Input
Amino acid sequence: MQKRHRLEIMLFIFKFSAVVFFLPVALYGFLSQFNPKGTYNFALAIGLSPGLMAWFYTLLLRLTPHHSATFYLALTTLPFLFVFLKPALLIKFGKEFLILKPIFQEKINLFVSLVLLSFIVLWYLNMPLMGNDPLEYFYISDLINSHKDVSFYPSTTGLERGFIAPFTHPIGYPTLLAWAK
Output
């Protein structure tokens, strides 16, 4: 049982690092091909990574439904790692990240940034308890995870366990939640 728990933690760390580090670096390399000066490449890579992962996973579920979780994990992470991830790119990405270093050299800026970041994290940890939409997101992600398919969405007939999920929300966020499970 403890071995399974360790495996789940390692899998979570891998998925988290894929969205937070590997995909932004790979996307940075892709964007650098079109914009060699590097204007806004770093910010675009950081900002677009979660949405890109969600839509890529949705596309995979549409085109190749009902496969194992390992199949989807491999197809959503390995192409980015092997196609765009190069050692020179890691150094360039790290230098872009160090641009933020002068902001945090003064202790007051670091303290204010940490307070604001902790407020945002605490706010979003409580967010699923505050409304109907988060419950819908988590329920749809559970359905996606169990079926490994998105063809049921939008569900306007209530055939899926009596649940009605119309076009009110795009499927990207629930798909990202299902990928993270």
Summary: Residues 92 and 101 are 15 Å apart (CA to CA).
